[in-house]
Design brief:
Keywords: ATP-binding, Nucleotide-binding, Transport. This protein has about 300 residues and is α/β, with parallel strands linked by helices. It has ten helices and ten strands. Helix 3 crosses helix 5, helix 3 runs parallel beside helix 6 and helix 5 crosses helix 6. The structure holds adenosine-5'-triphosphate (ATP).
Length: about 300
């Protein structure tokens, strides 16, 4: 049985069909990339899987259990963690506390414990802190973990976000453009980190525009175009697929953005994604789930 199974997913925003019949599966500890031109529906698909959007039709199963339309907190509690295209750290909180917030999801304590600072409360808090340090070590954070999260360089903040997602002990991790805005060396480190996450037995689905990284790290690649799935296969097959080449080249003809000519780029560290900057798409409210609401 697949860990994640997306079946004939559809999502419309008024008249716009953002996802038009998407089906794919993710196995235990598998690394799957979802790629496609801007606006293809990738983040919308993530938002459906994590409960931020309610699909118009279709089913989403986690280890055989239907999670379609469940609330984000419920889905997170079942072992699905995610990161966002635009970082969602609590900037004024310490780096450590950001990750502790992730660990709190599974270390349960009740209100009375918290109010009275019972031994159980103190033990749980200590465990949270230990877990947070563990995951910050795991992601290789170099910066000050006791300082404000917003003071860290962008690449480090990305690691903190992943540490926070891992602290929730997921079976499935969804990374939305983990390499966006990273420099050459940081991308290579991100690639290594994704592989180390796999070694923990955690499955990863990533949306990524950096084709070098996608081709290098993925076991399978799902390609979307205008909400439709046009390919699903091994990286080496997908990159040669005429429909995929057409989708990217067609898009190149339509606009001048530059993030598609790296389809043939096997150098994983070139910053060819055309979204370069620290925050490739602007502010926090880019429609990637910020409203936490229904589609
Ligand atoms: N909340 C929303 N309300 C209305 N339309 C939306 C919303 N979210 C996404 N869309 C539209 O749905 C389509 C798919 O968007 P989505 O962000 O999922 O694409 P994407 O493949 O993730 O793109 P990118 O690579 O640019 O992040 C786009 O046409 C987008 O404008």
């Amino acid at each position: 049985m697949s860990l994640l199974s997306v079946e004939d997913l559809r999502l419309s925003f008024g008249g716009l069909l953002a996802i038009d019949g998407l089906s794919f599966t993710v196995g235990e500890a598998e690394i799957v990339s979802v790629i496609g031109p801007n606006g293809a529906g990738k983040t919308s698909a993530f938002n459906c899987v994590t409960g931020f959007y309610r699909p118009t039709a279709g089913r989403i199963l986690l280890s055989g259990r239907e999670i379609t339309g469940m609330r984000p907190s419920g889905i997170a509690g079942l072992g699905v963690s995610r990161t966002f295209q635009n970082l969602r750290l609590f900037g004024e909180m310490s780096v450590l506390d950001n990750v502790r917030a992730g660990a709190h999801l599974w270390l349960r304590q009740n209100f009375v414990d918290a109010l009275l600072h019972t031994p159980r409360y103190r033990r749980t808090e200590r465990e949270c802190t230990e877990q947070a340090h563990h995951w910050l070590d795991f992601v290789g954070l170099r910066g000050d973990r006791f300082g404000e999260a917003r003071a860290l360089p962008y690449g480090e903040q990305r690691r903190v976000e992943i540490a926070r997602a891992l602290a929730r002990r997921p079976a499935l991790l969804l990374l939305d453009e983990p390499a966006a805005g990273l420099n050459h060396g940081e991308k290579a480190e991100m690639l290594a980190l994704i592989r180390r996450i796999r070694e923990l037995g955690i499955a990863t689905v990533l949306i990524e525009h950096d084709m070098g990284l996608v081709m290098e790290v993925s076991e399978r690649v799902v390609v979307l175009n205008f909400g439709r799935e046009i390919a699903d296969g091994r990286p080496e097959d997908v990159r040669r697929d005429p429909a995929v080449i057409e989708a990217y080249l067609g898009r190149d003809d339509e606009d001048d953005e530059d993030d598609t000519d790296d389809t043939d780029d096997t150098d994983d560290t070139d910053d060819t994604d055309g979204k370069g900057g620290a925050d490739g798409k602007g502010g926090a409210d880019d429609g990637d789930g910020g409203g936490d609401g229904d589609a």
